[in-house]
TrEMBL record:
Family statement: Belongs to the CFA/CMAS family.
GO biological process terms, semicolon-separated: lipid biosynthetic process; methylation
Domain DUF7884: 10-88
Record: active site: C357
Organism: Candidatus Enterocloster excrementipullorum
Domain of life: Bacteria
GO MF term list: methyltransferase activity
Protein name as catalogued: Class I SAM-dependent methyltransferase
Key words, A-Z: Lipid metabolism, Methyltransferase, S-adenosyl-L-methionine, Transferase
PANTHER family: CYCLOPROPANE-FATTY-ACYL-PHOSPHOLIPID SYNTHASE
Name of a matching Pfam family: DUF7884
């Protein structure tokens, strides 16, 4: 009985939105007013686990089936995760997890642990473009596919491209952005990735669409870019800087600087935070090992050191909320197929990840920024937002 009361007492601080906890046949009301959701605990969580990492303790309980949500998972998380500032994290006890090595070998392993789960897995719930980043919903009735096409079109317009230009995509994914750039603008594009699955799929796409004279892809770490002795008219990076680690943000910007021609444009699209934070332990352990979300201000500070002039900064936070809800809907529709690939713990883990991320964007815990820089002064870019 003592353990039960201690756990309930710990949960009582999350009282911003009232909810019900069911444990051992008893109901406990947290907060005042009509409950927004109900949590069923099939097993008690020790207070030491909750205080070491609230995120890990609750996340693992959900993965293991020891914690269930009555009703809609996203709705419950949307109410609960707005209070993440009340979560407990013992960084000293979780030092190895939170502050992993930023060496090349380790980061390659971390990236592959996420992106090399299998193209067949991602095809089940991404759209036809195989875009695994925030879409751009221009219209209320835009499908996920249309939003991803919109996003790439928007980025390419911001880059102010013209025929014959060269474009580097750092962290190119499955290559849709470069394929569109080659088709619509006739640019010569190069993509780099650490994911073998993405590399092989992008290469197939290049061959299938007869774009071998315009596009190339390499398995390469961004730190090796300056060694190529090549420069590009434009550089883009979508959802990649989150993987380089806080100590390497300046190095990442330095590398982009060295391969971008004077006056060239650089678009950086990344998940951001209002303030610097070491990261969430559950996400780091199970989803994005080594991932760290930059603040907008630290990326702008690093950019200034390289004489990158900020031309435009835009927050697309709610677009990512909607993108993630689309992904989670697709994911849930294909759960039976996913169960044939992975165990139940994995299935629950990814459902929790997609729904939780949607909730954190909705609550403003994280943002999505697109920032456009020029390498030094560029007086040829239109004075108004041409895109």
């Amino acid at each position: 009985m003592l353990t039960e009361n201690v756990m309930i007492s710990f949960l009582r601080k999350f009282d911003e939105y009232p909810f019900i906890v069911k444990l051992k046949g008893k109901e406990y009301r947290i907060g005042d007013g009509d409950p927004a959701f109900t949590v069923i605990f099939h097993k008690e969580i020790p207070l030491t686990a909750l205080t070491t990492s609230t995120s890990l303790a609750l996340g693992e309980a959900y993965m293991d089936g020891d914690l269930e949500i009555e009703g809609d998972l996203y709705n419950a998380l949307d109410h609960f995760l707005g209070q993440m500032g009340k979560f407990s994290t013992d960084e000293s006890a979780l030092k190895k997890l939170i502050f992993s090595s930023t060496g090349k070998k380790n980061q390659e392993k971390e990236v592959q642990s996420h992106y090399d789960i299998g193209n067949d897995f991602y095809k089940l719930w991404l759209d036809e473009t195989m875009s695994y980043s925030c879409g751009y919903f221009l219209h209320e009735d835009d499908s996920l596919y249309q939003a991803q096409v919109n996003k790439v079109d928007y980025i390419l317009k911001k880059l102010h491209l013209s025929q014959g230009m060269s474009l580097l995509d750092i962290g190119c994914g499955w290559g849709f952005l470069l394929i569109e750039a080659a088709k619509k603008y006739g640019v010569h594009g190069m993509g780099i990735t650490l994911s073998r699955e993405q590399y092989e799929a992008f290469n197939r796409r290049i061959k299938e669409q007869n774009l071998g004279d315009l596009l190339e892809v390499a398995l390469m770490d961004y730190r090796d870019l300056p060694k190529m002795n090549r420069t590009f008219d434009r550089v883009v990076s979508v959802g990649m800087v989150e993987h380089v680690g806080r100590h390497n943000y300046q190095l990442f910007m330095d590398c982009a600087k060295k391969v971008l021609k004077p006056g060239g444009l650089f678009l950086l699209h990344f998940i951001s935070a209002l303030k610097e934070h070491a990261g969430d332990p559950w996400i780091k352990k199970y989803i994005f090992p080594g991932g760290v979300i930059p603040s907008l201000r630290e990326m702008l500070s690093c950019a200034a050191e390289d004489d990158f002039h900020t031309l435009d900064a835009e927050n697309l936070r709610l677009h990512y909320n909607r993108t993630l809800l689309c992904w989670d809907k697709n994911y849930r529709e294909h759960m039976d197929q996913i169960r044939e690939m992975f165990d139940e713990r994995f299935v629950r883990m990814w459902d929790l990840y997609l729904a939780a991320c949607a909730a954190t964007f909705h609550n403003g815990i994280i943002d999505l920024h697109q920032v456009l820089f020029s390498n030094g002064i560029n007086n040829d870019v239109p004075m108004v937002r041409w895109y």
